[in-house]
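Please, structure for the following, as tokens.
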Amino acid sequence: MKIYEHHPHPHIETRKKRAPKPKAPQIGRMARFNAFLGEGITRGVGTMWCAYAFAIIAFISLPEAIHAGTSALISWIAQTFLQLVLLSIIMVGQKVEGAAADARADDTYKDAEAILHEALEIQKHLEAQDACLQKLIEAYEKNAKP
């Protein structure tokens, strides 16, 4: 007589068949091309080297903005320098933060895997204890009968 029967959660088998995916799947040729192009541009623009290049391009027009007056200088700062240079710097920061978030998500997944493994080990331990207790019960019942 078994006092407990383990029924694993249905998600466990599904989870074993697929690990977490770093990117969402792209369906269709055009979607794959757009994703490829977007990722390529993002990888290129989202570097500090690109930010340096944009800063150099922006500084080329700085003397003209200075000579044109305060209004043109403020416009150059807001529209040229900040938008052009900060775009790449912000993308670099987001890439760093995204990598950290991915690492945390991967750690969380691995933690969940470890917890599941430990829970299954506890289940095996309990089953072994159940078997031992069952033997003791059977021995007691055998000896207790007149």
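The chain has one domain: 23-144. The CA atoms of residues 12 and 116 lie 9 Å apart.
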